[in-house]
Fold this sequence. Notes:
By secondary structure, the protein is α/β, with parallel strands linked by helices. Helices cover 46% and strands 15% of the residues. It is built from 10 helices and 9 strands. α3 (71-81) packs parallel to α4.
Amino acid sequence: MSSEAASSTPLKVALVEDDTAFQEAFRTALAGAPDLTMTGVAATAAEARGLLSASPADVLVVDLGLPDGSGIEIIGEANTRWPGCAIMVATTFADERHVIASIEAGASGYLLKDSPLPTIAEDIRILHAGGSPISPRIARQVLMRFRPDERPAEASDGEVEGKTIPSLSDREKETLQLITRGFSFDEIAELMGVSRNTVLTFVRRIYAKLEVRSKTEAVFEARAYGLV
């Protein structure tokens, strides 16, 4: 067990996340860690600002796709209002723009939601101890940003790194755009004015064309192809 785990005073952890399933999984992961305690959960940017008005946490974990704003704004505000708090991102956004913006706003860790959640307790300890837990895919992106000589050569029209860009219908593109913004399938159905089953049909087609099996992979591939 780490030195933090051996501490008699549990680390205070706050979470900003609108997905109730992820909230519950997060609570469960921390429940088995006596050195960590949940002190607050916010599902929206407005609720997060309410959290920031209270006593500061030691660690703040933030999703970027909030229903009423960007988690990046919350990171910036937390960095100002809770200067001693270590901040980590947990999100589906794997593109360079979100990664760099989060780090510039004050985040010291960046985990994708396809990372094993049972390791989150140790990731929190590492973050608080001064480390920077980062998903391997994100770490490579950051490294490549500073090593332009290793960037792939510019692809020809209709191709990315030698692969043909998948052709999506307008409705499939709209669905994909909403997925990248973090909306649930039910929310997408309401926004598009179609049934949930229709959305799932669009999603199955998108997954097949992008050759992926999850939202996280779909977002990553879509951004890699420049589709969103």
